[in-house]
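Why run this: before we spend reagent on co-expression, it is cheaper to look at a predicted model of the complex and decide which construct boundaries make sense. The entries below are exactly what would go into the expression plan.
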Amino acid sequence: MEFDFQTGVAFGVLAVVLVYLANRFIVKPLRNSQASSDHKCGPGCKCGD
Amino acid sequence: MNKEPLSIALVGNPNTGKSTIFNALTGLRQKIANYPGITVERKVGTTIIGGVLHKVIDLPGAYSLNYKKLDERIAYETLIGSYEHEEVPDLVLVVVDSSNLDRNLYLASQVMDLGIPVMLVLNMTDVAEGKGIKINPDLISSSLGIPVVAISAKNKTEIEKLKGEISNFDLSKPEALKWNPDDSLKEAMDLLINDWIKLHTDIPDRAQAIEALRLISEGDFKDAFYTFEDEGKGRATIRKAQQIIEQGGGNPMAAEVLLRYNFIGESTSEAATHSAQSEVSITDRIDAFVTHKVAGPVIFTLVLLFMFQAIFSWATPFMDMIDLLFVEGGNWVANTLPDGMLNDLLVDGVIAGLGGVVIFLPQILFLFFFIYILEGTGYMARAAFVMDGFMTKVGLHGRSVVPLMSGFACAIPGIMATRTIENWRDRIITIMVLPFMACSARLPVYALMIAAFIPSTTVLGIFTLQGITFFGLYIFGIVMAVFAAVVMKRIFPTGQQTPFIMELPAYKMPKWSVVFQNTAERGKVFITEAGKIIVAISIVLWFLASFPKTEMPQVVQSESTEYDSSFDITENPESYQLRHSFAGRFGKMIEPVIEPLGFDWKIGIGLITSFAAREVMVGTLNTIYSIEEEDGESSTLKEKLINDVNPETGKPVYSIATAISLMIFFALAMQCMSTIAIVKRETNSWKWPTAMFVYMTALAYISSFIAFQIGSNL
Ligand SMILES: Nc1nc2c(ncn2[C@@H]2O[C@H](COP(=O)(O)OP(=O)(O)OP(=O)(O)O)[C@@H](O)[C@H]2O)c(=O)[nH]1
Ligand SMILES: [Mg+2]
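The model came back. Tokens follow.
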């Protein structure tokens, strides 16, 4: 496989996309799940159970 | 003139038009619909009045400050100033439905006791007029002692009038306890305030009376709203306060209610007049049919059936157009760009992936268009009412119905809407079954399978087998949700039921601008949100399906030795390459697991990518099939699926049994990361989302297995 201009761009795109996906599906959800619910918990429940 | 920036809170009973006013003031687009319990979160926006930027807060509706449910509690906490360290609003607009004045003023009279400036907004004056109710705002204003504006939030100039009143208001505080609690009630309140609230809570002085009244009528804490050590003492104090009222001849649960209603009755007796004729309203006449024991469910079923049939047939011409656009666009790019890797990536990865999904945009738009009409007219509330009868029969809570119905659009708002359920266990059960409701992300998968494998035979003149199957999948979702809830209820009994009373709002003409805007908004979200993920995944997939590069061995190409030669091997080099790519090898590896469900490795890859979002399945299939296709050919995904042949057996990959098994899998499996995340957030634990993922996916696997085995042996 020779390495021409198109191949270069294609792999560049792949790199950008991988970063996007990692951010969307790994970094962000992890950060969001750290932040707790905007309310402590449902009525009648014990928090954190 | 108010020159200082204010924070203005919108408070009121459910379905009185708070969010409509909020949207008109801020230019934002909070969800509005003609049934109670739409807003379940606090939303903040800004508005400019007379050159000053004010903050506006939209709150969930509440019937009273004696909150019972999470959504009501948010309103309460905001007003007493204990909501997540947010400041107390400087001004409260109590929004009331003018056609139902007395009941609405109950909350207003409570808010007036909080020591915050209050303005009364008599909304829906147009509806009141239609009912023959005449209201004199000035009289109400003088008897309550707060400013009153009468508006119809649908009317722009009246919103300007509201802005004017806000800017002219001197922010004087209303007189607290104007409704005159009697001596024993006063004594009971003082006792609670001095012996408990002041010592053990940080509720500010101005809100202590309201908190005392809440505790007296509740008789208990019910939930750990604030932290305290001496719970036993608190209970004893509440009990003592209740006894004071009982000794005075009153009923602790009702004392406040009676006195407030007396006060309200006096304030409005002169100010609001009904014109004499009390004929049966149009709403009542329609409801006699629509909520009828027998006719109701029949009408509900017919409405859904028509809706799904229409979605299926009306969208077709538009879908064909989009399809053509993408095929032609792909060809154009393929021919214009010089040959190379980027060319292939664009055509087979990006364009094929996106095109596979965008084609379903018309159906999505029609789906939401119908949903918004049902919500805007108020029919959704009747549908919930009809379902409620059925739900309570199987032992479920009626309050679950509205959240379940919102699951038709997407599980996430539905899960948020469970905040309107008081009982924590009922709430959890509703959350756990909600993802069975057929959300719009499943639509592309259902539609593709139906279009390809279900014949379009006409049934009963106006319906087609395809439309009915489509409708059947939605019903299947409802039935599974109810069934799962019944089972869970057996396992975790939720104790006694609090009766559920749902207010049926008067029918209204939907606000068309809102319907169209919201529908367009949904289309935009579908394209941008799902689109981004689909393009990204298609690109990655294209790489995985294109590497490593393998040459097809000559011997296989010319004369079949590896395969059974009883049929003609037509495998092309592209297909051979695909099967030996990373994606192909991985797919082959997992194939044994999904083979019993009737799925081949390509579907397997689609199942995996669809965990990012269900729609991605369709984009993935289109990408894989486009890579496999010989250059120059171009057919629609539907045709590719129908024509796909398993090179090892020579049989078509898809049969009706496969299609049904796949639809059942998508109906039942938990394939949505965003739902998992929201369940984690709402329940504050990983326990529930994990359980949800496991039981739903297991159920999907088993059901698809059974369906395929039965289907393929018929
Ligand atoms: N005719 C008429 N309809 C109105 C008016 N204001 C609001 N509506 C309609 O009333 C319904 C309820 O409006 P919302 O703004 O969602 O009410 P809400 O108070 O935010 O409701 P919750 O969030 O459930 O508490 C919608 O169908 C609105 O279009 C009005 O002044 N006149
Ligand atoms: Mg609202």
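Chain A touches chain B at residues 1, 4-7, 9-10, 13-14, 17-18, 20-21, 24-25, 29, 32-33, 35-49 (CB under 8 Å). The first helix of chain A runs from residue 5 to 34. Bring this page to Monday's planning discussion.
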